[in-house]
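User: Please fill in residues for this 217-position structure.
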């Protein structure tokens, strides 16, 4: 992932702010069914400053109702495939205080677990899985969510690192896109931690709880 790829994430987050400002999480208060999140729950799922010690908020958590414009941003492939039956789209962005590494969290909330499951491979194979560069390698992020994938690459002129993860938790698809302007600014362990926090927050929201998962300070 080059830094120009990351600028796409920043632009998406900024667009969401302009419009929206003013896993196995199969539980609806214990009835065993995955639930569709509300717009506010999507916003709460996105990590905020309190959940990200050591990182500075660049674009605060924002969620919007999915429409033609946001389908083109969330699912930028032919006919916006992968956005079928999606309800809301959200993003937040952070920059690390020390390394200047940048991470964007993205969420698409669907109206059912089946819709999220059907979109998973479409979006990973068709778009997000390619965003760490052609020479990126796969790596494991642990048993988080119901489905998960991750790639780590270094496609900048000076080998700047970048990574992308995709996770499904119940009725949501979740992404981490991370990049650093220099070598060593982001590594696999950090990406795993970030992806775990987002997945756990999605699980908490679908359990009907206020998302509280955070990085260790």
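Assistant: Residues filled in for all 217 positions:
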């Amino acid at each position: 992932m080059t830094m120009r790829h990351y600028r796409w994430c920043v632009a998406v987050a900024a667009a969401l702010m302009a419009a929206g400002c003013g896993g196995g999480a199969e539980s609806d208060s214990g009835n065993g069914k995955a639930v569709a999140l509300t717009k506010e729950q999507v916003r709460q799922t996105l990590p905020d400053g309190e959940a990200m010690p050591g990182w500075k908020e660049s674009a605060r958590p924002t969620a919007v109702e999915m429409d033609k414009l946001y389908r083109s941003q969330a699912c930028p492939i032919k006919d916006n495939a992968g956005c079928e039956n999606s309800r809301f789209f959200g993003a937040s962005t952070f920059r690390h205080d020390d390394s200047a590494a940048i991470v964007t969290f993205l969420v698409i909330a669907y109206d059912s677990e089946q819709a999220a499951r059907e979109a998973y491979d479409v979006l990973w194979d068709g778009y997000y899985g390619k965003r760490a560069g052609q020479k990126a390698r796969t790596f494991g992020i642990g048993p988080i969510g119901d489905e998960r994938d991750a790639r780590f690459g270094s496609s900048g002129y000076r080998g700047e690192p970048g990574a992308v993860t995709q996770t499904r938790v119940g009725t949501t698809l979740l992404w981490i896109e991370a990049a650093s302007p220099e070598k060593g600014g982001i590594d696999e362990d950090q990406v795993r931690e970030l992806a775990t926090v987002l997945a756990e927050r999605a699980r908490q929201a679908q359990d009907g709880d206020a998302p509280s998962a955070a990085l260790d300070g």
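For context: The beta strands are 55-65, 86-96, 102-110, 137-138, 147-154, 161-169, 172-179.
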